[in-house]
Design brief:
Blueprint (H helix, E strand, L loop, with lengths): L2 E7 L4 H13 L4 E5 L5 H4 L4 E4 L5 H10 E8 L5 H6 L1 H26 L4 E7 L8 H7 L1 E2 L10 H19 L14 E7 L1 E3 L12 H11 L3 E3 L9 E3 H13 L9 E3 L7 H11 L5 E3 L3 H9 L3 E2 L2 H7 L7 H16 L2
Parallel strand pairs: 1-2, 1-4, 2-3, 4-5, 5-7, 6-13, 7-11, 8-10, 9-12
Helix pairs in contact: 1-9, 3-5, 5-7, 8-10
Bound molecules: serine.
Length: 339
Amino acid sequence: MRKEVILITGANGEIGHGLISFLAQNSSTPILALDIQPLDEAMTKLCSRFILGDIMDQMLLGRLVGEYEITTIYHLASILSTKAEYNPETAHRINVEGTLNLLRMAVEQSQWQNNPVKFIYPSSIAAYGFPTVSEKMAAGKVNEDQWCFPTTMYGCNKLYCEHLGRYYSRHYKQLASGDTYENHVDFRCLRFPGLISAFTTPTGGTSDYGPEMLHHAAAGEDYKCFVRPDTILPFMVMPDAVKSLVLLENATRESLTQLVYNVTSFSPTAQDFHNYVLKAFPNANITFVPDKKRQAIVDSWPADLDDSAARADWMWSPDFDEAESFNNYLIPVIRERYK
Ligand code: SER
């Protein structure tokens, strides 16, 4: 008998940490964690098994199909937007071919199980792209179908993988004879805003100035913010990101009217971040030294997201608004962490 598990790729990343901690407490299905980096010991204890391995390793994925009955895949592994620009083709391979490998694995699992495997995929605000700041500001909240003209390799990869997910869940091998592929993958996708965790810092993203400002201030380190003070982006704290992933996973298939859903909570400027940080850490030394190229990326992302479809279809709402996020989650937890 193959063992039933939830598979989490990119398990050692920021979302992985939040998701593993939550699922270990709230789900009875064992967690199979995969990452190319060693998993933090505290997280490993919460998983049934950790595999140090690459999503590009098809032999490894094949072996997992033989060994496990994977009911849900949270495919979190990805190269983020800033890092991807240093080597776009490598990022493309990992972000797109890696996702393709996982989707193919999900198809195989779905056939074996005679049941669609759920494939939960975090996409991003990077899937959007505004040509100018004035158009960004004029647009305000954007819905899932507007302004999808990404300017980064990461954004292109995310947008394309959303389409791949739709293909695998609705049209895979549509000309094959018989009904071999009737148990399609059950692909569900969230477009995340910038995420902020009190426990981890992101690596290689472009929304990183928010979390970095906070963590540096708490650690007593100077910080040069790489965007202008008036820069605005949507954000959400990690507990809400995890909440949205799990809510979407648990939603009935009938309740979902689309495959890709925006989720968000609040849209602070970099100056707002600065104000919250200074209130909590009055000695923090933060200066604004905009980096032209990273600024351009952030300027191409929306100021706010319209998440009304998620609210209507699967009762999404964040637990933490702006004040709650800073006052009742980020500041107290980070303060404790760096004490
Ligand atoms: N946080 C991501 C990044 O900055 C966006 O999804 O790349």
